[in-house]
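Protocol step 4 of 6: structure prediction from sequence.
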Amino acid sequence: MRVNPIMKWILSSPMHGLVSKNTMLITLKGRKSKELYNIPVNYVRDGDVFFVTSYRHRKWWRNLANSTPVTLLVQRQGLSGIGEVITDKKDVADNLMIYLKNVPKQAKYFRVSLDSDGKPNFSDVTRAAQERVVVRIQLKTS
């Protein structure tokens, strides 16, 4: 698994503010290897839920089967959560709508147009959902 070591270092350093408003480190255990992986990912936060998207052909998210415990490093703050992968294309589209309603600026990266009110075009979102998955991470409350 190829991971950007410079981004990992920045997110763990006092310089994290350069990127940590939309990038975090997720730590998860490999399903087969049981090895710990620290992966920088872009995220959108909606309360106690973090949304991460990935292309279906990537492999890292496959380690999150069956409500997997994960740790997050968000703005140098350690958080614990439960990650679940959403692969059903309709559910991906629904969650991608939430993602893009929170950060409409990201729509261009998904090739999703916005209407005059800044809301994502659902048919564009449905198309984008064909090639993506959504990782939904629910924070653990203590």
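Step 5 (inspection) to follow. The longest strand covers residues 77-86.
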